[in-house]
Amino acid sequence: MKAVNIKDIARIAGVGVATVSRVINHHPDVKEETRQHILQIIEEYKYIPNNSARYLKRSESNDVGIIIKGIYNPLFAEMMQKIERILSQVGYTVMLHHHMDMAIRDMDVAQEFVKEKRLKGLICLGGDFEDVQTEEVKRMNVPMILTSALQNEALDRKVYSSVGINNEVAAFEIVNYLCMTGHQKIGIITTGEHDQSIGGRRTQGYMRALSTHGIAKVDERFEVGDYTFESAYLAMKRLLVKAPDLTAVFAISDIMAIGAARAIHEVGKSIPKDIALAGFDDIDYAAYYDPPLTTVKQPLETLSETTAELMIALLEDRSEHEHVMLPTTLKIRKTT
């Protein structure tokens, strides 16, 4: 009998691969009838889970690393969980590393992580790789995927993969929407106009939208924070003092928008009656905030699935490196 894999078991059982994985790993959230059905098929086809089979075949590392830039982005935390689930279903173990020291190059962290843990592949969620050279990537000698991370445009695209969105375009679209609804005095809470990371791209989108509508840049409408509730709350307090005539604010992340909302409410202003508010990411909190937050929805599920499936294909020599740009969606809710 031909050896079967987890996808074959799922097809025969008429369930998803994730359900088979939960049964194999003894997760409780599977109906007993379904569990027994899958176990019967596993027994009938003499299926050995991939992770066991792979480790029997070779003693080298079977680990894929995920580096998450920072600790405050719930979007990355959710993506990590989805990527880990898919990789584990086909036998790979995920090793996680939070990179929080802004003084250390992201590429240096990546190289050390691969070397120390003897990784088979590396996924970077976020980070700045704009100073990376092609030879640095080649020396790592493992597949590397940059997801929602900045890349050096001169880097040889055949030596790494990337998955992401166009942050500048997405920010332009949401600020353009604010302009189209009549706002001209639009503030921004960002990571800095000269930031070379994703925050900088979103700031560029804000600037282009203002320029498109003939709105001049006003320094008093700029404030800087980081990706935390507190920093955005304090930034919004400063904005309200130096630009009291604001009618709208774009925060470059939902976390920052929610922090800003508290400062707006504390001075007795109403959202959106007095000040409209928009964020970016569409994290879970956004739809359940009061009022629900207008934002840019990142295709979280697709970003995660594309990253994981591409890594599997690269590890199994079924694919060359790819570069995938996914579309975003405006989510117009009650804050505007």
From TrEMBL:
Domain HTH lacI-type span(s) in chain numbering: 4-58
Protein name (Swiss-Prot/TrEMBL): LacI family DNA-binding transcriptional regulator
Keywords, alphabetical: DNA-binding, Transcription, Transcription regulation
Organism: Fusibacter paucivorans
Pfam family, one: Peripla_BP_3
MF GO annotations: DNA binding
Source organism, top-level taxon: Bacteria
Family annotation (PANTHER family): HTH-TYPE TRANSCRIPTIONAL REGULATOR GALS, LACI-RELATED TRANSCRIPTIONAL REPRESSOR
